[in-house]
Specification:
Elements: E1 18-20, E2 23-25, E3 31-34, H1 37-40, H2 49-59, H3 72-84, E4 89-93, H4 96-113, E5 121-125, H5 134-140, H6 143-146, E6 156-159, H7 164-170, E7 175-180, E8 183-184, E9 190-191, H8 194-207, E10 210-214, E11 238-241, E12 252-256, H9 277-290, H10 293-316, E13 321-327, E14 330-335, H11 339-348, E15 351-352, E16 354-356, E17 360-363, H12 371-393
Helix pairs in contact: 2-9, 3-9, 10-12, 11-12
Length: 394
């Protein structure tokens, strides 16, 4: 008999009753050190008092009115994002998948309004993850996500990750945009080098294609800058944001330049829930905290500390780990074993981590993790690796 919850997830046999900062706590009081943060969502930790205060203050006033009316909280969040980024305008969504759908629509509408309706192709990279809607899985193109779902939305071309020659060959007079994650998350914590990201921007400028960045996972301070593309000193035309922007509350956004968004006029897109007062009150507080230069400096310092400790772990456990990748607090341990084995061993050490492609274990702790918690995390990872070693030797 099918479960009441559609069984599309292979869930761990764990349930959490509450959380405190970097800790998720079961009903019996067992504390798990959370290096997944809900897949980079709980950027400010569990039950962050600033976010609880923002949420409860708004909850006592008004939750939802729909976008039929002015929403001051949405205006405040959009203005904060515009002030802090390349963008001139923002559409607030409920999720990263919704943000991806709008980004695709915005690209297509741009070229339609420019009178070049044949320019519909969007070039993406193998290993990408842009969500699970039919449009987003067509963009990523992997067999794992697309098998069984019938004809896919046309107009996408995938090129090998990091292959700039293949990218140049794929871009033509039919190319509407290049869509890329500055750091692939699901793909295995694979950052695009700064010089290559600059080259992609230059290629788009040369050909007229729009540059769409997916910073759903790598944005909102995760790499030590507010957004990961800032390290390369470039700016996109359109950018998708979600996960950390709500600090755990469902929230996303599409940021765009005025030129790229010019075709999105009244009636061309909408959302019932997107940008409601409750979500935007929380998102605005998240932005206030994470965009503070002092906060981002701490992310960089802690990221460097964590990486240094992880390099030592790799040296101590060469049968399990072979390297560290990523930046800030978006880090990955390249494994010599199945990363799922390390995840399972971590549960026994009351540690939560997230597997990814390319044999990588993702480490995405709250950006508020402390130095002592970083030390404890590495100690628990070491014990988990010892369990994996022991199981292999048995």
């Amino acid at each position: 008999m099918i479960d009441a919850v559609l069984p599309t997830y292979n869930r761990a046999p764990l349930a959490f009753d509450r959380g405190e900062g970097a800790w998720a706590i079961t009903a019996d009081g067992t504390r798990y050190l959370d290096l997944g943060a809900g897949i980079a969502v709980n950027a400010l930790g569990h039950a962050n008092p600033d976010l609880v205060a923002a949420l409860t203050a708004q909850a006592g006033r008004i939750w939802h009115v729909s976008n039929l009316y002015q929403i001051p909280q949405q205006q405040a969040l959009a203005q904060a994002l515009v002030d802090a980024t390349f963008a001139d305008t923002v559409f607030v969504t409920n999720s990263g998948t919704e943000a991806a759908e709008l980004a695709i629509k915005m690209v297509r509408k741009y070229w339609h309004d420019a009178g070049d309706e044949g320019r519909i192709e969007i070039v993406t990279f193998e290993g990408a993850f842009h969500g699970r809607s039919t449009g987003a899985i067509a963009a990523a193109g992997s067999e794992k996500m697309t098998r069984g779902y019938g004809p896919l939305m046309p107009g996408f071309r995938q090129v090998p990750w990091g292959d700039m020659d293949a990218l140049r060959a794929a871009v033509s007079d039919r190319t509407a945009a290049v869509m890329v994650e500055p750091v692939q998350g699901e793909g295995g914590i694979r950052p695009i080098p700064d010089d290559e990201l600059r080259a992609i921007r230059a290629l788009c400028d040369e050909t007229g294609a729009l540059l769409v960045l997916d910073e759903v996972q790598c944005g909102m301070g995760r790499t030590g800058r507010l957004f990961a593309h800032e390290w390369a000193g470039i700016a996109p035309d359109i950018m998708m944001v979600a996960k950390g922007i709500g600090g755990g509350f469902p929230l996303g956004a599409v940021l765009a330049t005025e030129r790229a968004a010019a075709g999105m006029t009244a009636g061309t897109h909408g959302s019932t829930y997107g940008g409601n007062p409750l979500a935007c009150a929380v998102g605005t507080r998240v932005m206030e905290i994470i965009s503070d230069p002092a906060f981002l400096a701490e992310v960089n310092r802690k990221g460097a500390l964590f990486r240094q400790r992880l390099e030592g772990l790799v040296a101590a456990r060469p049968d399990v780990f072979e390297g560290v990748r990523g930046s800030g607090l978006m880090l990955g341990l390249k494994c010599r074993v199945a990363p799922g084995d390390v995840v399972q061993a971590g549960y026994a050490e009351h540690l939560l981590t997230v597997p990814a492609a390319d044999n990588v274990l993702r480490l995405l702790p709250p950006l508020t993790i402390t130095d002592d918690e970083i030390a404890e995390a590495v100690a628990r990872l070491d014990r988990a690796a010892a369990r994996v070693d022991a199981a292999a030797a048995a």
